Structures are given as structure tokens and as C-alpha cells.
Amino acid sequence: MTTVSPRPETLVGSPPEAVATHQPAMRLRELVFGAACAAAVRAAARLGVADALGETPTTAEELAAALNTEPQPLRRLLRTLSCYGVFLETEDGTFAHTDMSRMLREDDPGSLRYIALWCTEPWTWDAWPRLDEAVRSGGSVFQELYGKGFFEYLHQDAHESAHVFNRAMTTSSMQSALDVAELLDLTGVRVVADIGGGQGHVLASLLEKHPDVRGTLLDLPDVVAKADPRLRTGGSLAERVRIVPGDCREDIPVEADLYIIKNILEWDDESTGRTLANIVAAARPGARVVVIENLVDDTPSMKFTTAMDLLLLLNVGGAKHSRASMVDRMTKAGLLVGDIRPVNPYLHAFEAVVRG
Fold it and tell me: For the whole model, what pTM was predicted?
């Protein structure tokens, strides 16, 4: 009789030397269930679990009563998240906060609640299964999925998702604004322009740190209409600020000593090239340009940034950049690139000047 040896990963009670053969198979199994982890984080954020959990370890039953959920499913959700370090299950079966779970609280200074919701919005579950199509074509799958472009869909058909997007971008901008203000040397700068600067958190932080500097904020009309209160009429910085509604891919009617472009050069190559060319056209020779981006070849944040890179491919046909690709695009636009410096663990600043 012929016997067939089981595959290594199916062995029970394997000796220590067999453990290494188990790990790749188990890791792959965990990876293909990645959607379950993302869904669990989303569920905890939507339910407000982190907000309901105080500083004292709490039972699932107590949390369920506070959240109006069933205790057993909530325990199962918390147990799953505890496997990834989001919440801690104690020896007596209660649950406590971890550094990661605290960041799901809405009132946490480093809150990632809206980032977590944005990356798991309903449209993402429609788009991810079609990643192979996007890889084959090199373009977005959104038009085929919804019959319209991504941002058109977001603002016309997915108002809650649009709200989550705005909150996520605001949170991210506010958290990095102080890092940018700390990094940049504004010696000799009289006017700084934040191009595609959203609500202007970076600009506001720079102006607060440098009282002799004036600023300009340029972004789409509906975005700048909700600019940081410090920049709007009656705000503490309003007298030193010019707010310009516009699309930086079309025109940049702004003169400045320093132009900042943060986390917007993620579109298709044509749009990215047009934006950089518009800055060069608007600026005087020798003006400084600082491009701030997440990088796909930045080791500390590569898992997050490469995932975002694939999501950009799916929804807008865009891409995150490597150091080389960013330098290439800036150079082709007429910029002389100098230092590349980390802003924080997930952002880098590319210093450049407009060629004479």
C-alpha cells in the first residue's frame, strides 16, 4: 500500500525545525483574510468602540450595553482586533486600550478614525476585486463600475463617503502641518503659496510660526470656501492671507517666493506634469518649490504607501511616487531638485528651485 505524507503545514505537533515551513503558509492564509481585518477596524470605528472604552479594562458585556450591540458578536470582533494589537484581551477576558486602539477615538490627538473609515468605504469593496483589470489596462476601474469618474461619483452619489473623505484629509493635514512648519526654513521668504492646499492647515501653521510672512492658499472653490477659520475673514491670520479659488492643473495665478505642493501629485502623469509646469510658469527664476509626498520606496511606510498606490490606480488611475519618479517629473517641468528630507515617518520633502 502506498502512503502519502501530509504537507508540512498540515502536520500537528511538528518539531521545532518544521516551524519555519509553517510560517509562509500561515502568513499567506492571514494575508488573504486581510479584508476581515480591515472590516473589523471599520466596524469598531463605526460602532465607536474605542470611544466607549475607558482607561479601565472592560468586559464585552459592559461595552455592548454602552454601544447597544450584542455581547457575543462584539467579543468576537474585539478578539479578532486584539490579534493585530488593536485592543488588548486580558487574562480575565476583559478588553483594554492599546496605542493603536486609542487612535480610533475621535478625540485622540493622533486620531486615525476617519483615515480608517476612508480606506474601507463601501466603494473600495467594489473596486479591490477588479485590481487585476486595472493592472492589465493601467487605468482606473471607476468609470466602468459607476458610469462616472471617482470625484464626480463621490460628490453626486456618495455624500457620506465624501464627508468621510473631507474629514480624513483634514485630519491628515492638521497632523502633518506642524511637522512641515518645523522642517521648512523660511529665511528670506516674504510670500509662501500653498498650492492645492486644501483648507490651509499647513499655510496657517507656517504663518503662525513666521509673523512677517504673507501667504496664498489655492484650491478648488468648494474647498477654500471651508478654509481654516484662522485664514478666513475675521480670523487671526486673515490680514496676511490671500485665498484664491482655482484648479492648479489649469492655472496658478500666484506669485510667491516659496511654493508648497503637498500630497496632490498623485493623479495621472499628464495632470501631474501640468501642475508642475503651471508653477514654473507662474514663478520667477530662483523661486523655491517644495513638493511633499508619501513615497513607495520609503521603508518605514512602504506597506501603507504601496497599498495607497494600488488604491489610486483603482479609483483615479493615479500613483504614488518613488524618489526617482518624483525627481524625474520635477526636473522635466524645469525645476532644479536639491535636498530630499524626511518630514515625519511617512512624508518626504523635495526641495527645488525654478531654473533661470
Answer: 0.87
The residue among 91, 65, 95 whose CA lies nearest residue 80 is 95
Strands 335-344 and 347-354: antiparallel
* CB distance 124 to 153 below 8 Å: no
Q: How confident is the model at residue 234 (pLDDT cuts 50, 70, 90)?
A: very high
Q: Are 280 and 334 in contact (CB under 8 A)?
A: yes
The long-range contacts involving 90-93, CB below 8 angstroms and separated by at least 24 positions, are 90/57, 92/57, 93/59, 93/60
Q: How far apart are CA 40 and CA 19, in angstroms?
A: 29
Place 1 in a pLDDT band, splitting at 50, 70 and 90. Answer: very low
**C-alpha to C-alpha distance for 298 and 321, rounded to whole angstroms:** 10
SS (H, E, C) 4-30: CCCCHHHCCCCCHHHHHHHHHHHHHHH
Measuring CA to CA, which residue among 290, 281, 288 is closest to residue 326?
290
Model confidence pLDDT, tens digit, residues 152-197: 999 899 999 999 998 998 898 998 999 999 999 999 999 999 999 9
> For residue range 46-86, what is the model confidence (pLDDT) as tens digits?
999 999 999 999 999 999 999 999 999 999 999 999 999 99
**Residue 218 contacts residue 285 (beta carbons within 8 Å):** no
Query: Residue type at 189?
Result: V
Count of beta carbons in the 10 Å neighbourhood of residue 339: 9
Tell me the C-alpha distance between 3 and 273, whole Å: 64
Count Cβ neighbours within 10 Å for each residue of 34-50 and write b for 16 or more, e otherwise. eeebbebbbbbbebebb
**Which residues, in sequence order, are bridge partners of residue 96?**
88
